[in-house]
Design brief:
574 residues; alpha/beta; Nitrilase/N-carbamoyl-D-aminoacid amidohydrolase; Rossmann fold; six-stranded mixed β-sheet; 17 helices; 20% strand; elongated
């Protein structure tokens, strides 16, 4: 049996693009064709799947596909399994139930085979809000083969799930010829190894190859990396590319003769979805530390951020980009990533906006960085506007503009000028804040927190340093060494450094990872070797900064637990 895995890259709601993809396949090759979860509509849909205009387009596509399948596939030895939606309507014509299903396209038309049973409702997922779980047995018999059917989450065991589709399928059909999983599985660092481990476990269990097809795309802050594969026991018969569409074709009979482990039952301990959310902490150290990243992981991190930026810009219609450079490490990393992501015909501009407290080194480093990257740098000082504002406030309010107010007005002036230039050039402003700063509120609302998209919002400061050094090794040293070595500073007052307000970043980041993963309390962190007052201070800053994060721009998600759509807590709380 020929197996074809279609790792596709489409925009949500691009029904014409979906149909064109199928048309471009003609003549259809014989065999079983697999497409990702919700291939026909895109994913994640959120409230889009409830909108009447969207539903009408889905139903129109279904009618079109019914005709297409009969005309194109009649008399062929081809079966297409595609992910899509199935609506059931009430008496008023409103959707009573929505199913996330596998549709079968063959010479007889289009028919529903299987509906997703496990609806994830954690982190970025809230599928129980939209979908109704399916009840069909996950078995397809075709051309003398018995094929197990799963959709994304169905492959994962969890004590939180009432059902276990893998176990149910195994109990009724312990040996199959093939197990398939249509997925739209969001990316995060190191997730691919977990997916593969679980797939191998299922392959051994059923004594059959496990075919996993995943989509590609950047949807707002969520990334889908592709990385489809066919696992056969501990082997990999085929693996798709990362971050791009791909097509894998193979003879499944030629790869299904491997030896399998004699498993007596599905594992209920290893490779659960909960294991995907383990805090990235090295507990062998005292105090504990953030896990360090090897070169391969740093490459992966870079590629994910570049892909996310390109996708967001492309789907929002931007070809010009704007970054505020300061001579600091965060803006240096953002500018370098933006330059690496640049496509032919696109433009990138840097703006350096010094104030009274900006050092001459900051200008020198910014200029050297831009020269290394071949990016034009505009010099736009704020000191004169800042001075005028100081005088105005003194005259109007009878008191000097000083302290935190004076620091924040400098940051807001920069944000205002940045967006004024953005309006002139129709450029997308890329934010430069990192995860450590976001967590403790170390940024100015409507100041350095502005931007259309955050590249570093899921990177702790220690990871910013590591990625900068990695990019220098990989890309001919674009970031001046002085930027990496100097003490981080906002340069909003005389002799200011970050460490005057915050613990050293190696300790701060470890405390934050423990808190943000929900796996460690203040007490546990204190018992892990951290100073009690330091942990309490960080915890208080984190809790009291929610109002800033709530209004922050989308953050490219590359971790299992990130700020953004998957992090929802009350703004007003004790």
């Amino acid at each position: 049996m020929q197996l074809h895995l279609h790792q596709t890259h489409h925009t949500i709601g691009d029904f014409n693009g979906v149909f064109k993809y199928l048309e471009d396949m003609k003549p259809i090759k014989p065999g079983l064709h697999l497409f990702p979860e919700l291939f026909l509509s895109g994913y994640p849909l959120l409230d889009l799947c409830l909108q009447k205009g969207f539903i009408e387009q889905v139903l129109e596509l279904h009618q079109k596909l019914e005709t297409w399948a009969i005309k194109t596939l009649k008399g062929s030895d081809s079966l297409l399994l595609v992910g899509g939606l199935d609506y059931k309507f009430d008496d008023q014509g409103l959707p009573a139930d929505i199913y996330n299903v596998i549709w079968a396209l063959d010479g007889s038309g289009m028919k529903r085979l299987y509906a997703k049973k496990l609806l994830p409702n954690y982190d970025i997922f809230d599928e129980e809000k939209y979908f109704t779980p399916g009840e069909e047995p996950g078995l397809l018999e075709w051309n003398g083969k018995r094929i197990g059917l799963l959709v994304c989450e169905d492959m994962w065991h969890s004590s939180h799930h009432i059902q276990d589709p893998v176990k149910e399928l195994w109990q009724s059909h312990p040996e199959l010829d093939l197990v398939v999983n249509l997925s739209a599985s969001p990316y995060h660092i190191s997730k691919s190894s977990k997916r593969l481990a679980r797939a191998r476990e299922i392959s051994h269990l059923f004594k059959a190859p496990f075919a996993y097809v995943n989509r590609v795309g950047g949807e707002d802050e969520v990334l889908f990396d592709g990385d489809s594969f066919v696992a056969d026991g501990d082997g990999i018969a085929w693996r798709g590319k990362l971050w791009q569409s791909d097509l894998g074709s193979l003879d499944i009979d030629a790869v299904s003769a491997k030896s399998y482990l004699p498993l007596d039952a599905p594992s209920e301990v290893a490779n659960t979805w909960e294991s995907l959310f383990t805090p990235a902490l090295d507990r062998s150290k005292n105090p504990i530390q953030i896990n360090s990243h090897n070169e391969a992981t740093l490459d992966e991190m870079r590629d994910a951020l570049l892909f996310g930026l390109r996708e967001y810009a492309s789907k929002c219609g931007f070809n010009n980009f704007l970054v505020a450079v300061s001579g600091g490490i965060d803006s240096a990393l953002v500018l370098t990533l933006a330059r690496l992501a640049l496509k032919p015909g696109q433009k990138l501009e840097a703006i350096y906006m010094p104030g009274f407290f900006s050092s001459s080194l900051s200008y020198d480093y910014s200029a050297q960085l831009c020269e290394n990257l071949d990016v034009p740098m505009r010099h736009l000082p704020i000191k004169f506007t800042h001075s005028s504002l100081r005088n105005q406030f003194q005259d109007v309010f009878g008191m000097p503009l000083e302290g935190l107010s004076d620091e924040n007005v400098q940051s807001r002036l920069r944000g205002m000028l940045l967006y004024t230039r953005s309006n002139q050039t129709n450029a997308m402003v890329i934010n430069t804040s990192n995860k450590s700063e976001l967590a403790v509120g170390y940024s100015t609302q409507y100041g350095d927190s502005v931007g259309a998209l955050s590249l570093l919002g899921d990177l702790y400061k220690t990871e910013v340093f590591a990625l900068c050094e990695h990019l220098n090794r990989r890309h001919n040293h674009p970031i001046p060494t002085g930027i990496i070595e100097r003490a981080p500073s906002a340069e909003l007052r005389e002799d200011q450094t970050d460490q005057q307000s915050l613990p050293p970043y190696d300790r701060l980041d470890a405390i934050l990872e423990g808190l943000l993963s929900y796996r460690m309390s203040v007490k546990e962190l204190q018992e892990s070797g951290f100073d009690a007052d330091e942990v309490t201070k960080v915890n208080d800053l984190w809790r009291k900064s929610e109002y800033k994060r709530h209004q922050f721009c989308p953050i490219i998600k590359i971790k299992s637990k990130s700020f953004g759509f998957g992090y929802r807590v009350p703004i007003c709380k004790l």
